[in-house]
Amino acid sequence: MEYLVKITITLKQGVLDTQGKAVTASLHGMGGYEALQEVRVGRFLELRLSAKDRGTVLTLAEGMCDDLLVNDLIEERSIEVVEIR
Amino acid sequence: MEYLVKITITLKQGVLDTQGKAVTASLHGMGGYEALQEVRVGRFLELRLSAKDRGTVLTLAEGMCDDLLVNDLIEERSIEVVEIR
């Protein structure tokens, strides 16, 4: 089976998001976006995997997050698995 | 009302994703991830806004994407609006 794994990585609450602050300041500077209060910037990864079942895919995805993709000290992740065929 | 807007930005199909290729190569180099076929790297933004209704929020979010956040030539976006209070 082939699967698509969508991983959303965000900074933990309390971690200073300098990139988000810069984006907020830019948008405020443009005018018309006074309603905007905060921007937090994260990452989004789409992985394509071949595996025998959804459980295997989730285990592999968790492993890849731990080994390379996510810094658990400052980031948190959310993983969604979609079967594509 | 206060809203959370989740914006997922991905490279369009056909646009070369050098960052994704680098991540794929790193994971393959680690061993144990032969099941991985492709990684595409995108961005994820979380915006907090105060506005009177969901329609206003969506219009503002679309405007911010057009004005600053998304490069329509090579990227596509998906916008989700969540009422938080």
Q: What does it look like?
A:
Two copies of one chain form a homodimer. Chain A is an alpha+beta fold. The first copy, chain A, has one domain (2-83): 2-Layer Sandwich (Mth169, Chain: A). Chain A is built from two helices and three strands; from the N terminus they run βαβαβ. Chain A has a three-stranded antiparallel β-sheet. Chain A is elongated, with a radius of gyration of 17 Å. The termini of chain A are close together. The model of chain A has no long low-confidence stretch (mean pLDDT 97). The A-B interface holds A 2, 8-10, 23, 26-27, 30, 32-33, 35-51, 56-57, 60, 63-64, 67-69 and B 2, 8-10, 23, 26-27, 30, 32-33, 35-51, 56-57, 60, 63-64, 67-69.
Unreliable runs of chain A, pLDDT <50, ≥5 residues? none
Q: Which strand-content bin applies to the residues of chain A?
A: 35-45%
Greatest interface and its participating residue counts: A-B, 35 and 35 residues
Class computed from helices, strands and strand pairing of chain A: alpha+beta
Radius of gyration of chain A: 17 Å
Q: Which strand order does the major sheet of chain A show?
A: 2-1-3
Helical coverage of chain A, percent range: 25-40%
Overall structural domain count of chain A: 1
Biggest sheet features of chain A = 3 strands, antiparallel
Question: How many E-type strands of chain A?
Answer: 3
Assembly level: homodimer
Helix-strand topology string of chain A: EHEHE
General shape of chain A: elongated
By CATH, the architecture of chain A is named 2-Layer Sandwich
Distance between the termini of chain A: 6 Å
In the CATH scheme, the class of chain A would be Alpha Beta
CATH topology of chain A: Mth169, Chain: A
Enumerate how many helices of chain A there are, as a single number: 2
